[in-house]
Amino acid sequence: MFDWTFVTHYAPFFVNGSVMTLFISVFGIVLSIAVGLICAGIEIARIPVLKHIVRIYIELSRNTPLLVQLYFLYFGLPKLGIVWSAEQCAIVGLGFLGGSYMAEAMRGGLETIPNVQRESAYVLGLSQWQTLSRVVIPQAISTSIPGVVANVIFLIKESSVVSAIALADVMYMAKDLIGMYYSTYESLLMLVVAYLVILLPISLFGTWLERRFDYERR
């Protein structure tokens, strides 16, 4: 029989786990956006050597599981004399994985801007920076929003594997309670609710933002 007393008693544990999930996710996403912007800029600018390094990074990041990357950071780096906390490994791991996905989304947005628009801006007397800030970037952001929001949601869901390096996120809490009390249904319910509370507002906000930019483009 479903035990609501168990749910009400251990719900605060999931609140704490949700805070940890949000903490590592926010910093990991910020890092991934920064990495994505740099990589997309290098690819669009076609900078020799660097563009090949970026492509290698993107392929390596997207074709290896986050769990493997976390194990390398948490268990492998200490062998090289580099010791990071579980939180630092989780943030860097999410940033490393997310950076490649963000780079592809942002590059796609930048590539949708026709060269004729840049050339027209130069003819009108705009500098390269003014052309980027007033012509290229606003349109690229509008085009990239769906991909970026999807990647944000993807990274938050991927953060569930950080429990493998003993980080007390919501997934860790669920597995811990199931292992100790065998209250599978109650723990999974709280886990689902926790992720819905985190992800649903982001999804709704992303949908609103996408429609807002589409309306302004018209």
UniProtKB/TrEMBL annotation:
GO MF annotation terms: transmembrane transporter activity
SUPFAM superfamilies: MetI-like
Main localization of the protein described in the UniProt heading: membrane
Transmembrane regions: 20-45, 188-209
UniProt keywords, alphabetically: Amino-acid transport, Cell membrane, Membrane, Transmembrane, Transmembrane helix, Transport
Keyword Transmembrane helix: yes
Keyword Transmembrane helix in annotation: yes
Gene3D superfamilies: MetI-like
Mode of membrane association: Multi-pass membrane protein
Protein's name according to its UniProt entry: Amino acid ABC transporter permease
Organism whose genome encodes this protein: Bifidobacterium catenulatum subsp. kashiwanohense
